[in-house]
Amino acid sequence: MMRTVAVRNGLCRRRALRQAGFMIAQWDNVSIDTEDSHGLAVFYAEITGLPIIRDDDDWAAIGHQNGMKICFQKVENHVPPNWPEAVNGQQMHLEFEVADLVEAEPKVLALGAQRVGGFDTGFRVYLDPAGHPFCLVD
């Protein structure tokens, strides 16, 4: 009820939710460790169509300046996840919805992805060039 009143009074939705106590923070980005921040930004920019909005020596980002972003942080001696093993296993993964898995797969492979699982219909698991798992789902 408070949310409806706040939105009706002309406040933006996020601000209204914070002021009404329904939201503690606003999601800004997810950051992925890698030895090559630029290379991984290019990889995910090609998959998502999102623009590269920052590209420094140790930090890159894709997305929208005032919206959600995927960031890539350069970490010396980065140890990639070892999917699906438990030791140094997957800590997180990204999922991307596609219209057609058969059509999308050669495109992500050409960008440097490696297919590692999900041979059932509906999803496939890949590693990005830094070794992080991600899925394509239809």
Automatic annotation (TrEMBL):
InterPro entries: Glyas_Bleomycin-R_OHBP_Dase, Glyoxalase_6. Residues 30-137 form the Glyoxalase-like domain. Signal peptide: none annotated. It holds the Pfam family Glyoxalase_6. This is Glyoxalase-like domain-containing protein. It comes from Renibacterium salmoninarum (strain ATCC 33209 / DSM 20767 / JCM 11484 / NBRC 15589 / NCIMB 2235).
